[in-house]
Amino acid sequence: MTSSQSLDQNTALPELNAPGTCDLTLLGEGLVLRPSPQDDRPLREAVEASLSRYFDHLDGSSVTDLYAMVMAEVEAPLLASVLDHTQGNQTRAAEMLGLNRGTLRKKLKQHGLI
C-alpha cells in the first residue's frame, strides 16, 4: 500500500493537526483536513500519535512516500494559516516562514493557494 492509498475510507486521524485546527480524515486517495475541537497537545505529540495510529491501520501493509504525504498535508494548512494571519501579504508571510518570497509563491501555487 502506498501512502497515497486510503487505509479505510472515512477513517479519522485527528492527531495529525495543530492544536484545535483540523482533523485528518482518509477519504478515497488521500487525507482530508477537517475542523476539529480544541486539542491542547503540542504539535509534536499530535503528529507522533497520528503516525502511530496510521501505522496501526496499515495492518502489515507496506507504505511508500510517507514523508512527502505528511509534508504535503502539513505544509498546505501552514501556508494558508500564515497567509491568513498576514492578511494575504506574501512578503510578510515569507518572512514569518523564513522562506524566500519566490519560494513561498512556488509552494502556494503547488498547493493551489494562489
UniProtKB/TrEMBL annotation:
Listed Pfam families: HTH_8
Gene source species: Halomonas daqiaonensis
Gene Ontology biological process: regulation of DNA-templated transcription
Domain DNA binding HTH residue range list: 71-110
NCBIfam families (UniProt xref): PRK00430.1
The protein, known as: Putative Fis-like DNA-binding protein
Database matches in Gene3D superfamilies: Homeodomain-like (1.10.10.60)
Keywords: DNA-binding
Gene Ontology MF terms: sequence-specific DNA binding
SUPFAM superfamilies per UniProt: Homeodomain-like (SSF46689)
Family, similarity comment: Belongs to the transcriptional regulatory Fis family.
Xref: InterPro entries: Fis_DNA-bd, Homeodomain-like_sf, HTH_Fis, Trans_regulatory_Fis
PANTHER family assigned: DNA-BINDING PROTEIN FIS
Top-rank taxon, per record: Bacteria
